[in-house]
Amino acid sequence: MKEPRYLILADHDFGVMTSKTANSVIRYHPTRVVAVLDRLLAGQTAQQVLGFGGDIPVVASVGEGLALGANAILIGIAPQGGRLPDEWRDWLRQALEAGCDIVSGLHTFLADDPLLAETAREHHCTITDARKPPTDIPVATGLARDVAALVVLTVGTDCNVGKMTAQLQLVQQLNARGLRTRFVATGQTGIMIEGWGIAVDAVVADFIAGAAEQLVLRGSKGADVVLVEGQGSINHPGYSGVTLGLLHGACPDAMILCHQPTREYLGDYREASWMKIPPLAEYVRLYETAGSAVHPTRVIGIALNTYDLDAAAARAACDAAARETGLPATDPVRFDPGPLVDAIVKRRDERRETRDEKSCAP
Amino acid sequence: MKEPRYLILADHDFGVMTSKTANSVIRYHPTRVVAVLDRLLAGQTAQQVLGFGGDIPVVASVGEGLALGANAILIGIAPQGGRLPDEWRDWLRQALEAGCDIVSGLHTFLADDPLLAETAREHHCTITDARKPPTDIPVATGLARDVAALVVLTVGTDCNVGKMTAQLQLVQQLNARGLRTRFVATGQTGIMIEGWGIAVDAVVADFIAGAAEQLVLRGSKGADVVLVEGQGSINHPGYSGVTLGLLHGACPDAMILCHQPTREYLGDYREASWMKIPPLAEYVRLYETAGSAVHPTRVIGIALNTYDLDAAAARAACDAAARETGLPATDPVRFDPGPLVDAIVKRRDERRETRDEKSCAP
After folding, report:
1. Per-residue pLDDT for A362 more than 50?
2. pLDDT of residue B75
3. For A153, A186, A273, B151, which has the most beta carbons within 10 A of its beta carbon?
4. Using the beta-carbon criterion (under 8 Å), do A142 and B205 form an inter-chain contact?
5. Which residues lie closer than 8 Å to A284 by C-beta, 6 or more apart?
6. Does A230 score more than 60 pLDDT?
7. CA of A279, closest CA in chain B: separation in Å?
8. What is the per-residue pLDDT across A188-215, written as a single tens digit (0 to 9) for each?
């Protein structure tokens, strides 16, 4: 595969919460991004829209992206309504005809679109649907509990609170402390960033835990610490099944609880809101109870997403979370992720001692 | 659709635990079953093999079943290995050529088999894959919590402990008490018995709760009580995601905990066994904690599956379960289901009082 130089399609969506894929790819792989297509923001830069991403320009057409050297199209979140609008299909055809590959995180698989598939074949381009799961996932049988690496799972108070980003922010410091650390992607954005993974919410229900188990088995090879991207929330009326299947399949030794302090209701930016988010301590109890039903686990820290607070309010939110739970709390994007790194190192030392004791037992 | 007269395919499998579909269809619709195909037991009757089912004969070939008047083939659980053996495919083709429809609960969809699909078309027969989910299931948003009917979900200590059968045993007595009661099927066997439903373990993970929600919304129309078939177990390493998604999508007001007293380990008849089944009181805590995170719910009774105990031991097991949990406990197949029916009626009265109070509040 050629080194990608992406034009990211985020029309009408860039810089808002639903453009998670665009934002994250720009944050972690800015050199792979040539431009972002959003007709509403054309003329600005990623830095101006997101506060990071430097000079990456926002353009108004596929043609401009191609002129800037794009050799691949990246589509993150679906446009409103979920279906691919005809206009977008035209853009994709234009890009394929110019020799671009397509990487998509949409629920609808683009490789199954006859017109796009045919155009891709004609022009020797690939269409990669990041959410398309492998067909040979087994039912989980608890194998992940035996891996030598420490397995850390992010869990959340809701969807889209920063469970992937929290893990990605920890990798560097853990490696710097001499722990070989691997991030394991369980959603389309993580897969696009890391280059492998399984979108666990896209597999058939019987195989959620099996997918998580396979990911941990692969990710733990040669690693001291495995950071598994969490999904959904244990009390989310729509997605909790994915959350628990992932928790039981991954068998984490430790969990980091992620939360956005300004959010009051589950899913409040998108769906009908009726469920008030309970206190963090209640989530700690829920996740530890549910997780330990299969493999002993506990919450070791809190990762807050304070992007919509000023610095003083963000600090205060971290202090309040730490007081409420008795656990280290930080915003690992905005502040030093060190407290969470410390908690992981400490948990790993504890687990090694326990395992050593066990192996020395008469 | 013509009234089915089934030949049930259960070769090498009839009368053992994995022939759940065959057993249940014979238990609840004996008049629809013409014969069972099992070459190892040919010559016996269902009564001799199962202890119920009367004179339904076990035969050794499709031809014998056709001669007895079969106009449809029913396949429950997959033969060992899960794949459809060539021999079975030949049987199915023979049946289709004789004008039989096929109803299948296999994971592999028979309607997708080109040879069988073509043969069915030629002979104007239908192939129904009971596990094939609809394609338009929405993500759940908690709508099931508002239905007027009392929603009762069976939950279990493991897979295959009697969660469907417990519900089916309660329908008649509840109707006899004047409560319009509907069974809601969430797995292939229940769907074959009831004629509608969704196999919630076969939907894409994001839509488990959505499927449960749709089923409860449909099942509750004109009903006083909805009995939802449970799936899996909250601490099953492979299937817990399905269990929690179903629990949060169905929003039950009450749960009945199902258990087989002789079982010591989760999944011990099939998969690698390593997880000891914890005490019933621990399951009550797990299900009430997890369920109430979305909608207030509690366990109101215990349904035991004592088929492999003698009568005295079965009685003793019910007494022990009642003592341990402080809840009514019975084997609703072997003994009177009355204690569970009483518990449902009581829970319904309580809920009506609470709702009345709420609606009278200033």
Report:
1. no
2. 92
3. A153
4. no
5. A257, A299, A325, A327
6. yes
7. 12
8. 999 999 989 999 999 999 999 999 999 9
Architecture field, domain A6-129: 3-Layer(aba) Sandwich (3.40)
Chain A residues inside the 8 Å CB shell of B209: 237-241
Say yes or no for a CB contact (<8 Å) between B139 and A275: no
ipTM of the complex: 0.92
State whether B142 and A275 contact (CB < 8 Å): yes
pLDDT, one tens digit per residue, over A144-187 is 999 999 999 999 999 999 999 999 999 999 999 999 999 999 99
Determine the distance in angstroms separating the CA of B51 from the nearest CA of chain A, rounded to an integer. 32
HSE toward the beta carbon, residue A237, CA cutoff 13 A: 28
Which residues lie below 8 Å from residue A38, measured CB to CB, with a gap of 6+? A10, A11, A12, A13, A14, A15, A58, A60
Selecting from B205, B241, B248 the residue whose C-beta is nearest the C-beta of A237 gives B248
Closest chain B residue to A245 measured between Cα atoms? Answer: B241
Domain limits, chain A: 6-129, 143-360
Residue B159 burial (C-beta neighbours within 10 Å; 0-12, 13-18, 19+): buried
What is the pLDDT at residue B107?
A: 81
CATH of domain A143-360: 3.40.50.300
Residue B199: other Cβ atoms inside 10 A: 25
Residues of chain B contacting residue A242, judged by C-beta atoms under 8 Å apart: 205-206, 208, 241, 245
What gap in Å lies between CA B283 and CA B265, rounded to an integer? 14
What pLDDT score was predicted for residue A2?
Answer: 64
Strand B225-228: give its sheet, edge to edge: B181-184, B225-228, B150-156, B254-259, B298-304, B329-330
Interface of A with B in 165-204 (CB under 8 A): 200-204
Q: What is the pLDDT of residues A336-360, one digit of tens each?
A: 999 999 999 999 999 988 876 665 5
Which of B146, B206, B236 best probes binding to A when mutated, by most A CB atoms within 10 angstroms? B206
H-type alpha helices, A41-107: 46-50, 62-67, 86-97
Q: Which two tokens stand for residue B256?
A: 């009945």
A241 to B205: CB separation less than 8 angstroms, yes or no? yes
Query: Chain B contact for A112, CB < 8 A?
Result: no
Flag residues of chain B having pLDDT under 50.
Answer: 361-362
Point out the residue among A237, A245, A289 whose CB comes nearest to the CB of B241. Answer: A245
Q: Which of A19-33, A262-276, B86-100 has the lowest mean pLDDT?
A: A262-276
- Report the residue of chain B nearest A131, measured CA to CA: B204
- B280 and chain A: CB distance < 8 Å anywhere? no
Under the phi-then-psi rule, with left for phi > 0, alpha for psi from -120 to 50, and beta for the rest, what region is A240?
A: alpha
Cβ–Cβ contacts within 10 Å for residue A94, how many? 16
Q: What is the pLDDT of residue B298?
A: 97
Task: Give, in order, the Cα–Cα distances in Å from A109 to each of A95, A117, B87, B264.
Answer: 17, 11, 35, 44
